[in-house]
Amino acid sequence: MNFVQDSPHESTDNVSVIFIMTIDPTKISTSITPYAMIDDHTAIPSEEEILFTMHTVFRVDKMKKPAENSRLWEVQLTITDDNDPQLSTLTNRINKEIDGRGWQRMGKLMLKVGHFDQAEELYNELLDNASTDSDRAFIYHMLGTMKYHQGKYQEAVIFFENSLKIYRKTPLEDDASLGCSYGAIGLTYNNMSEYSKALEFYEKANQIFEKAMPLNPPTLAASYNNIGLAYNNLGEYSKALEFYEKANQIFEKVLPPNHPDSATSYNNIGALYKIMGEYSKALEFYEKTLKIREISLPPNHPSLAGSYNNIGGVYKSMGEYSKALEFYEKSHQILEISLPSAHPDLASSYNCIGGVYDNMGEYSKALGFYEKGLEITKISLPENHPNLATSYNNIGVVYCNIGVVYCNIGDYSKALEYYEKSLKIREIALPPTHPLLASTHNNIGVVYDNMGDYSKALEYYEKSYKIYEKTLPSTHPLFAGSHLNFAAFYEKSGDSAAALKALQDAYKIQQETFEEGNTAFSFTFIWFGKVYRGLKEYAKTLDFFEKCLTIEKRTLPEKHPYLASTYSNIGDVHRLMGDYERALAFHQKALNIQENVNSNSLECATTYMNLGETSREMKDYTTALTYYQKG
């Protein structure tokens, strides 16, 4: 054990891994999986070595990092063999999928386990020696598959089209190989965000599969899955769910429960439920996916990273930011190991981590991650790709939030600059009713709102709301966000009745979607408090501000500017209710934060003025004058 613990000391980049193997002779057949104790025959008998046969298989039971050593991982393994029903079923299925002759089969296996560089080297060698059109078509297809997994989508399309040209020479227009080529081209266009083109190729593939392969349900199911994916990306969620469920029904009938394709099906349904705001259902399907992938894939496979990322996304939407960050970081660690440094999925991972820090109010960290994501996206994708729009949008969000907190008009201008870049790309690349367009309109509205240009803010809020009405269920959390924006607009315009109506609409949706105490409620409670303060209903005002404070104290860093703002609001209500001692205490709490962080100078000045006003009403004129002068 000592040499394992000491081995990484030469490099801080290394960690040790010790595999702890459990052998239960009653659970395996020694004739199928023989092993031998060889301590009497080795140079170091004290090591008590065991010799295993080459085809020995172990289950991975658990991986953990001992608390006393941060640079050592323990992996608990249990020996198994062909009599294990789960292993046997999965192996038989994968053997059928990795068909073909000799080296072709080896190439498929390389792709299956994510060894893309080795697969490319092998297929290029096979292409140089190919003697028939059939072999060349197959190899072009597999090279396209390899480029697809590397994120080199333009190159992938070229290889797939080379394969398609050869397959089209066949007199059988319903040949299954032709369907596979159409499907692969569709999948690649989907990842290039050309969703209408993707759907066109998916439907061509599906027509062939329904004629040529009615007795091959997994291929048909994969085809339904792809069509569902295209509809999902086009924002047509009911159609997407219809095709995803068709696929899932087939997979559940014909595949073993731990098959990777079942995982893909569950993953797609989970993604759809997340978009529709049904987070508990999304989490249920994502966890089914993760369970299968942890059993069936190597520990550093990109698909496993995808599962961690998706679960992180649901927790982020639910306001559970520490859990979200935990899963996003698990995902990112795998992607850094398994993908090229300029892969689009790495950019997406940086964006996800940035998004959590953004929501936690750690804007400098958020901006750092977003800019890393943007740098990769600019290198790896075309200039009008929607992922580039997402990067611009994310940076716009950060600048907007910095603007909110620090009241810096320069930051609002930067936010607007990035949002408009995002909008320009999304208007080209997406259908006019896509929810991402609505999101960008909404964000531009928020910037104009914070700059005090309320008529422009309302114009963009309404554009966003009209898109949501066409594409999302009425209980989706994004509707709650729209209602909150309308409430803020009406409150600033002095229309308290309209503001309350919008707040009640938002609150009703949030109650149906989130658990009590979720961070989503904090902004709703703040605006309820502000409206009731304007109506001079101070008891209700105080109740809502205190509800907001309870959530913020649980979810935000103790020096977060939002906490200072809430303390200040509570202090102001106590002053209006004549409770000056409490008012002073809360204003002082606000000031303690504002004087010790790089905070909004206007809010800090407002707190000084509130302290001055409270001191004046207490007839402490000297103190009041001091605070007024500071303000």
TrEMBL record:
Oligomeric complex composed of two heavy chains and two light chains. It is found in: Cytoplasm, Cytoskeleton. This is Kinesin light chain. SMART domains: TPR. Keywords: Cytoplasm, Cytoskeleton, Microtubule, Motor protein, Repeat, TPR repeat. TPR repeats lie at residues 100-133, 137-170, 179-212, 221-254, 263-296, 305-338, 347-380, 396-429, 438-471, 564-597. The keyword Cytoplasm applies. GO terms for cellular component: kinesin complex; microtubule. Belongs to the kinesin light chain family.
